[in-house]
Write a structure and sequence with these properties.
The complex is a heterodimer of chains A (264) and B (518). Chain A is an alpha/beta fold. Chain A has two domains: 69 residues, Defensin A-like (2-Layer Sandwich), CATH 3.30.30; 164 residues, 3-Layer(aba) Sandwich (Rossmann fold), CATH 3.40.50.280. Chain A is built from seven helices and eight strands; from the N terminus they run E-H-E-E-H-E-H-E-H-E-H-E-H-E-H. In chain A, the strands form two sheets. In chain A, strands 5-4-6-7-8 form a five-stranded parallel beta sheet, sandwiched between helices. In chain A, helix 2 runs parallel beside helix 7. The longest helix of chain A is centred in the last third of the chain and has 15 residues. In chain B, helix 2 packs across helix 3 and helix 2 packs parallel to helix 9. In chain B, 58% of the residues are buried. Chain B has 518 residues and is α/β, with parallel strands linked by helices. Chain B is globular, with a radius of gyration of 23 Å. Chain B has a domain of 92 residues. Helix content of chain B is 53%, strand content 7%. In chain B, the strands form two sheets. Chain B has a nine-stranded parallel beta sheet with strand order 7-6-5-4-3-2-10-9-8. A two-stranded antiparallel sheet of chain B has the order 1-11. The chains are: A alpha/beta (264), B alpha/beta (518). At the A-B interface, strand 1 and strand 2 of A face helix 7 and helix 16 of B.
């Protein structure tokens, strides 16, 4: 990895804080609204609130009345809190990541049969954008979807698919993996939906017979694992990330000759 | 007006003629059929409202009873008229008796169709008078307190709680918004009934109910009077209850309604026969009461590629226009949709977006074009997102779009916070004001990138429409020509709610509304 400037060599990685234009200046920009009437008292309130958050020298650079009783602020401050970077642990999806063509070849060489996946945006969620990005031929942002992968058969059931229907389809086509998409997160509805799916898989005795993954803009691998999924795919993850995981997992589980669920 | 894009008027006329033929062909199918939601709409317009003791809406209870008895081909108007003749009661009283299990509406002695029609006519006239009074009220507001300039600033509220929505909506109006859309809760589109009463729980939006419409209408009238600008209210006449929600919108003076002839088929997997029959009555109502409909072409670009599939948007706009013509909707109420959704990494992408928006304006000169913001390529980088929205705003004012759904810098993160809406409105106001007459000053280079792009898209749209005319709309959708989504003719939700009309079927509202009667 290359670094930007000589100064970074002086960073104490056990005590990291934000960087503005000088090491350890701690500069942070904040934008927020307070439910108070616009005026000098509002600005002072914002300043003190930012101070209480642990920022030194808070500077209210802009404030504006959104409507009577609500004021919007832009505030700069210097952070005092630090984090020990050397102690950070982030759970990540296991295995190597291959590109689309490599995935197809790898499956041909290592699995010797097509890998079957079924995906859907489940329950109340009407958004197809996530599952389409992974499965549809066009993919997203120049990353082709699973329909364009060799040795992969992918079924896209679209949105608002009940968990029961998704499981039924996965059984019908002997899926190796299920891909669950969730976009709406208001009031943690995605947690409820994803939990329901995991519990139903368990109840049907299928949990160890299929690989269960989920994805969406607010989903991390860590969250997925907490909810009982094998892997989770968040922003910046594309079809090749999903398939790299699934195919290596199929191999790990020894399902090369177990295309049928009852054999697993 | 001379075309700045040097579009060939023969190609435009040809595309429009193909679309008219597609719509006419489909209209024959539509006129032979009715649906449960169409019949429920008739009951609502006859004053039936409320729920039974287990919260089933009475229009559903009555129509379900008629359907189970095999009476749907005759239509709810006949059965209700007959029940009035036989019992001397009002439609609401009759529906309540059906709901209480005291009356089987199809088991009464029967009168002639003429007698039934005569019995309901006073109520039909009363309802039409109420709707016309609402339209007159809107016109009075527009004449007295006035309205914002086009492109109207259109923002959404989506808290799930109608009372919280009111706070957000009034705040947005005070910040400069001209149109407030109350986003519906996720999954309402697939409910085969309209929930009842005020609601405070929803996911990603708030239930569309008649009471919620009333609450928001009142709040927007209040704030409109305060800021000296009529604030338009928008909701969704789409999904399984298209015409019912249009009727509620007409009665409660909504101003804008999402309503697309084929959106529900493609994106909600609603059966195509059901949607096409439902959209007709919903559009007749919308045309009658002065609501601007918004079609949903922008959605194709979230599932298909905006650069490659641009002609499908144009083709769909023509189809939506021609279905609207058949429902007697004036051009000024046609909010044909499109969107700024090309991948921002495309070189000259701005030029292609400009070509598309300019072309829509030239092809549909009087339409209230609805322009939708970038969503697909918003990343969570709010700073870049704000710039994408700025480019979108620039094209809008430049090409004279009518309804500008404001992009939010926090798109792809959360439903808008109060400050997000302020920043978006400020962005649009700055650009609209700063570039107000840009379009009048600028012409495009002959045979340059912009002209060529528009000429290419309209040619492809014309070819697609010719193909649809040849194959029929049903078959085209089955093949996945729109939005890259395939739907079977007998698949999807709600087919069981479609039936062929009997010989003595009648719906008094359609002819009277088409005739503009009061």
């Amino acid at each position: 990895m290359t670094t930007c400037a000589a100064a970074t060599t002086q960073v104490d990685l056990t005590k990291v804080k934000p960087y503005g234009d000088t090491l350890n200046d701690g500069k942070v920009e904040l934008a927020f609204t307070l439910p108070v009437p616009y005026g000098e008292e509002a600005a002072e309130t914002a300043k003190q609130w930012v101070q209480k958050m642990g920022f030194e020298e808070p500077n209210v650079t802009y404030y504006h009345e959104l409507c009577p009783g609500y004021t919007f602020f832009v505030v700069y401050g210097s952070a005092t809190a630090t984090i020990d970077y050397t102690k950070i642990v982030v759970p990540k999806v296991d295995g190597e990541v291959f590109d689309r063509v490599e995935c197809g070849e790898w499956i041909g060489e290592n699995i010797g049969r097509d890998i079957v996946v079924v995906g859907a945006s489940i329950e109340s969620d009407a958004h197809t954008v996530g599952i389409d990005a992974i499965i549809q031929m066009k993919g997203f942002h120049g990353h082709f979807g699973l329909e364009r992968f060799k040795n992969v058969v992918a079924y896209n059931m679209g949105s608002q698919v009940p968990c029961e229907a998704l499981i039924a389809k996965a059984k019908e086509v002997n899926a190796d993996a299920i891909l669950v998409s969730q976009t709406v997160t208001q009031k943690d509805i995605h947690i409820m939906n994803l939990t329901k799916m995991a519990e139903l898989m368990e109840a049907e005795g299928l949990r160890d017979k299929m690989i269960l993954t989920c994805g969406g803009p607010r989903i991390s691998h860590e969250l997925a694992q907490e909810l009982g999924y094998d892997a989770g795919f968040g922003p910046g993850k594309y079809a090749e990330h999903v398939m790299s995981f699934v195919m290596q997992e199929v191999k790990k589980r020894g399902w090369e000759k177990k295309a049928k669920i009852e054999d697993r | 007006m001379k075309s700045k894009l040097n579009l060939d008027p023969k190609v435009v006329d040809s595309a429009r003629q193909h679309a008219a033929n597609v719509a006419h062909d489909m209209q024959k199918f539509i006129e032979r059929h009715t649906t449960v939601s169409t019949e429920r709409t008739i009951l609502r317009l006859l004053g039936v409202d409320g729920v039974d003791e287990v919260d089933n809406p009475l229009p559903n209870v009555v129509v379900d009873q008629i359907k189970e008895a095999g009476g749907l081909p005759t239509g709810a108007a006949y059965w209700m008229g007959n029940a009035m003749v036989q019992t001397g009661k009002t439609p609401q009283e009759i529906a309540e008796e059906v709901g209480a299990g005291k009356l089987e509406i199809t088991k009464l002695p029967t009168c002639t169709q003429e007698e039934a029609a005569a019995a309901i006519m006073p109520i039909v006239k009363q309802t039409l008078a109420h709707i016309k009074a609402q339209t007159a009220k809107r016109n009075e507001y527009l004449a007295t307190i006035g309205e914002g300039k086009e492109p109207y600033l259109y923002v959404i509220v989506a808290t799930g709680n109608i009372y919280e929505d009111v706070i957000q909506a009034q705040a947005a109006a005070r910040q400069g918004a001209d149109i407030i859309a109350v986003i519906r809760t996720t999954a309402q589109s697939l409910l085969d009934y309209v929930p009842y009463g005020p609601t405070t729980e929803g996911f990603g939006g708030t239930y569309a109910t008649q009471e919620n419409f009333r609450i928001m209408r009142k709040a927007l009238d209040e704030v409109g009077e305060e800021v000296g600008r009529y604030i338009r209210l928008c909701n969704y006449s789409s999904g399984m209850c298209m015409p019912e929600i249009a009727a509620m919108g007409a009665m409660e003076r909504l101003d804008v309604m999402l309503n697309d002839a084929i959106y529900g088929i493609l994106f909600r997997d609603i059966n195509m026969q059901r949607t096409l029959v439902d959209q007709y009555f919903s559009r007749v109502i919308i045309g009658y009461c002065g609501i601007i409909f918004n079609s949903g072409e922008d959605n194709y670009l979230t599932t298909d590629d905006a650069y490659e599939a641009a002609h499908t948007v144009t083709a769909s706009q023509f189809i939506n226009e021609q279905f609207a013509v058949l429902a007697n909707i004036p051009e000024e109420q046609m909010g044909l949709g499109h969107a700024f959704e090309m991948d921002p990494s495309i070189e000259d992408g701005f030029l292609y977006e400009l070509a598309q928006a300019q072309m829509a304006r030239e092809i549909f000169p009087k339409a209230r074009l609805k322009y939708m913001p970038p969503t697909k390529f918003m990343t969570g980088n709010i700073f870049r997102g704000h710039v994408q929205d700025a480019l979108f705003n620039l094209i809008s004012v430049w090409t004279g779009q009518s309804l500008q759904l404001l992009g939010m810098l926090t798109e792809a993160i959360h439903t808008p916070h109060m400050q997000d809406r302020y920043l978006s409105i400020e962005n649009a106001q700055y650009i609209f004001n700063n570039a107000r007459h840009l379009g009048e000053e600028v012409e495009y280079k002959k045979d340059g990138i912009i002209q060529k792009r528009a000429q290419d898209v309209i040619k492809k749209a014309d070819a697609l429409l010719a193909e649809i005319e040849k194959e029929g709309l049903f078959s085209t959708i089955e093949q996945g020509k729109f939005g890259g989504v395939k739907r079977p003719k007998d698949g999807g939700h709600g087919l069981e709610g479609v039936c062929t009309k009997g010989d003595n079927y009648f719906n008094p509202f359609i002819p009277m509304m088409l005739g503009g009667e009061e």
